[in-house]
Design a protein that fits this description.
pyruvate-formate lyase- activating enzyme; ten-stranded mixed beta sheet; about 20% strand; about 475 residues; 17 helices; Arc Repressor Mutant, subunit A; about 35% helix; alpha/beta
Length: about 475
């Protein structure tokens, strides 16, 4: 597993390039509109014969105000009745889908993302969760993972206790940066007191794991101010901290056009912000899990990584392997067996499909043999920082060096710079390569060599 990420600015600059985040392989850009509902049904029904456990993702798109950096699927709204109406439709979608899955299959993960899931009142949230529980069998295991994303600016008193009553045991809090000038520039005014009080409230209510999201590369951000944010967060000892690099893609995300590009940190200062985050978190006892994520040694992410059970999906790193992921709501993504599928991304179109009694599927993908092989290789890199060559050869019946001769050629610059070591039985990422996992994984991505249409969305840079 990763012990610590070694920062080398020169190497990061040399290998920094746009690429997928590898929450899936193939990435969502490869999904196709000709993957229809009937094909999805076949995968859903076939999955019952495998008896895998289930992971459920529910997307709540509403936010009270726009954060200018955001690239998520979200809808700005003030009226809480919109949340109630959305839950009505969400439960109808869930009911139509649940009938395809055997009733006994255990749900070990439930995650509400957004948007801002706490846009929903405690009463509406309870109606949603209990409605899901009537259609799926929630696990009663101690290590089940029921989580929700929260905006500390709009969490009412008593909400944390209501979460515990509903069975949630992990929360993720958006922060990004505490500096007032940075907050004004991205339209997210959030006090330290609001955030720390919510962390205390969650702990007092019995929430066992808290994650805090931070972001480097925001407008007006400086090492001095970001250090204050980092030290404020680490003083609260959340079990996990995610530090994302802001990707300025205003042609893709309309809200980002409100950000003054001239106020963004330059390349050197952006690197310094990343170095600072690594130094501060590691000095505070956090372990580098991989891809922006840090956790305390006793956290389940670290323990899963030590057991070689860590994996990535559209929710990021996850502690439960071997689950079929079912996504519900606007833009939600499912991963059932050897298929990916995504719901309609526009709220009105999703509502119309649900009201018409249809499954609101927009696109998807069936994985072929090469996809499955490369998914295993890239997943091993992203979660463990190494590829066990003999295991891949045994599991997929290939000669690794022959099959991946092009990928090994692409790896040569990484090897020359000491980012990767290639031995007879293993390809491993060095400490200096841990921050370049995406760049290394890209060498094994067959789709990156295909021509792309100008209209296709661009990737963010790996650093």
């Amino acid at each position: 597993m990763f012990e610590a990420a070694q920062f080398d600015a020169a190497l990061l600059r040399r290998h920094d390039r746009p690429g997928p985040r590898y929450t899936s392989y193939p990435s969502a850009l490869q999904f196709r509109s000709d993957f229809g509902v009937e094909r999805w049904r076949q995968y859903a029904l076939h999955s019952n014969s495998r008896g895998r456990r289930l992971s459920l993702y529910l997307h709540v798109p509403f936010c009270f105000s726009p954060c200018f950096y955001c690239g998520c699927t979200r809808v700005i709204a003030r009226d809480p009745r919109k949340g109630e109406q959305y839950v009505d439709r969400l439960l109808r979608e869930i009911e139509r889908t649940a009938g395809l899955f055997q009733a006994g299959r255990e749900v070990v993960q439930l995650h509400l993302g957004g948007g801002t899931p706490n846009f929903l009142s405690a009463e509406t949230l309870a109606r949603l969760v209990r409605g899901v529980g009537r259609r799926f069998r929630f696990s009663t295991a101690v290590n089940r993972d029921f989580s929700i994303e929260l905006d500390p600016r709009s969490v009412p008193p008593g909400y944390a206790m209501a979460l515990t009553v509903l069975g949630f045991n992990r929360v993720s809090l958006g922060v990004q940066d505490f500096d007032p000038e940075v907050q004004r520039a991205v339209n997210r005014q959030q006090s330290v007191a609001q955030t720390l009080d919510l962390i205390d409230d969650c702990r007092d209510s019995g929430i066992r794991s808290i994650n805090v999201d931070l972001m480097y590369g925001l407008p007006h951000q400086t090492p001095r101010t970001f250090q204050h944010t980092l030290r404020t967060v680490t003083s609260a000892r959340p079990e996990r901290v995610a530090v994302y690099g802001y990707a300025h893609l205003p042609t893709r995300f309309r809200a980002q056009r409100q950000i003054d590009a001239g106020a963004l940190p330059g390349p050197e200062e952006r690197m310094e912000l990343l170095r600072l985050a690594i130094d501060e978190l590691c000095a505070s006892g956090y372990r580098y899990v991989g891809m922006d994520h840090f956790a305390l040694p006793e956290d389940e992410l670290v323990q899963a990584q030590e057991r070689h059970e860590l994996q990535r999906n559209f929710m990021g790193y996850t502690t439960h392997a071997d689950c079929d992921l079912l996504g519900f709501g606007v833009s939600a993504i499912s991963h059932i067996g050897d298929s990916f599928s995504q719901n309609i991304r526009e709220l009105k179109a999703w509502e119309a499909a649900v009201d018409a009694g249809e499954l609101p599927l927009a696109r998807g993908l069936e994985l072929n043999d090469d996809d499955r092989l490369r998914s295993a290789v890239i997943g091993a890199l992203m979660c463990e920082g190494r590829i066990e060559v003999r295991r891949i050869e045994r599991d997929f019946g290939i000669d690794f060096r022959h099959y991946f001769r092009d990928a090994l050629e692409q790896l040569r610059p990484h090897v020359a710079d000491g980012l990767v070591r290639i031995d007879a039985d293993r390809i491993s990422v060095s400490e200096s390569g841990q921050l370049l996992l995406r760049s290394i994984a890209m060498c094994f991505d067959a789709y990156l060599s295909e021509p792309r249409e100008a209209s296709q969305p661009s990737y963010s840079k790996v650093v």
